Amino acid sequence: MVEVFEMDSGAKMIAISMEKGSLDSTKVLIFIDHENKTVYLWRGNKADLFKKLMGTRVAAKLSHTYSKYRIRPIAEGSEPAAFLDLTGIRR
Prior knowledge:
By secondary structure, the protein is of the alpha+beta class. 26% of the residues lie in helices and 31% in strands. The chain has helices at residues 49-65, 81-87; strands spanning 2-7, 13-16, 28-33, 38-43, 70-75. A five-stranded mixed beta sheet has the order 2-1-3-4-5, covered by helices on one side.
């Protein structure tokens, strides 16, 4: 199971349903992959700097909630294969 959240400008996580194969470069997204015990913090190239910083802060807080999960920050264009498989993105 994977939960997907978008960081809003108020540093809140908004649950979203994401269409496989599409990521918006203006967004900062958090993917919680329960099967692989990984939290991905994906930062789009055109995302606002404030959202990127807040995403980092929120991911750090999530590390307390999901203490057995790995936190993986990812910049757009540098996505690892596991993340690409999870999101259905092909590069």
